[in-house]
Amino acid sequence: MRCVVANWKMNLASEEARAFCEDLLGRCTPGAGTEVGIAPPFTLLHLVSDLVRPRGFQVFGQNGHAEAKGAFTGEISMPQLRDAGCSGVLLGHSERRQFFGETDGALAKKVKAAWQWDLLPLLCIGETLDQRDAGQTLEVLRQQLSILAETGPGPLWVAYEPVWAIGTGRRAEAAQVLEAHAFIRSELKRHRAHAERGVPSLYVATETPESFPELLTIPEVAGGLVGGASLDPRKFAELVRQAG
Ligand code: PGA
């Protein structure tokens, strides 16, 4: 299975989102064996899901709280994401870890909450530049995946993001991507996280129509979580076509 997910981050307002979706739908639909998702900001979830879900696209939240409801100002819950049309949720993106103090402990609870509300978690993991330079890459990945010992197995996608290559124009070399994904695969097996169904691992960081075909030739890479290029429907449609 191949997967391509657009991470819009904190971009676009409703008319821009509508125009994006109409343009995208005129260019592509997910083919057999390819899952395509869009993760818009919360305010756009209803609009985007009404437009794209009937055409076979999935919609993801960019974050979700572990509690179903309560006094958590500024947060959104998993049942609220479902109610807004989501079938999945991004968890642990490096920007959440870096700027909002997301911890592995909180992520274990969020993964379980996502499963409880029938949402597919797209768990993001990856090392910073300091960690890579210190030779700690695999140890960081091992640690970030160790939450699966607490959650147990369940449906999951994993996105590997070398943090130093996000939005910087820097690219991980094929050998680095392969090493990380092969390690992720072995850790998933160790945690029996593949028990329910195959767990695709996606690559994250500045995929473009120029770089994506080569990434897709790397064993274990099932697709991409796309930031900047996903704001251009022409580029995103091309990535979907390349994955199909
Ligand atoms: P980028 O972001 O494609 O702009 O590097 C990817 C992501 O952070 O999801």
Task: Summarize the topology.
Layout lengths: L1 E6 L6 H14 L6 E6 L5 H8 L5 E4 L16 H6 L4 E4 L2 H7 L3 H13 L3 E6 L3 H5 L3 H9 L1 H5 L5 E4 L13 H17 L10 E4 L7 H5 L4 E6 L6 H11 L1
Parallel strand pairs: 1-2, 1-8, 2-3, 3-4, 4-5, 5-6, 6-7, 7-8
Helix pairs in contact: 1-2, 1-11, 7-9
Bound molecules: 2-phosphoglycolic acid (PGA).
The site of 2-phosphoglycolic acid (PGA) has 11 residues, from β8.
Can you tag this structure with a few keywords?
single chain; 244 residues; alpha/beta; TIM Barrel; eight-stranded parallel β-barrel; 16% strand; globular; binds 2-phosphoglycolic acid
Quick rundown:
The chain is of the alpha/beta class and 244 residues long.
Please characterize this protein's 3D structure:
With 244 residues, this protein is α/β, with parallel strands linked by helices. It has a single domain, classed as TIM Barrel. The chain has helices at residues 14-27, 45-52, 78-83, 94-100, 104-116, 129-133, 137-145, 147-151, 174-190, 212-216, 233-243; strands at residues 2-7, 34-39, 58-61, 88-91, 120-125, 157-160, 201-204, 221-226. Strands 1-2-3-4-5-6-7-8 form an eight-stranded parallel barrel, surrounded by five helices. Helix 9 links the parallel strand 6 and strand 7. Helix 1 packs parallel to helix 2 (45-52). Bound molecules: 2-phosphoglycolic acid (PGA).
What is the CA-based Rg, rounded? 17 Å
Please give the CATH architecture.
Alpha-Beta Barrel
Residues in helices, as a percent range: 40-55%
**Ligands, deduplicated:** 2-phosphoglycolic acid
Discrete helix count: 11
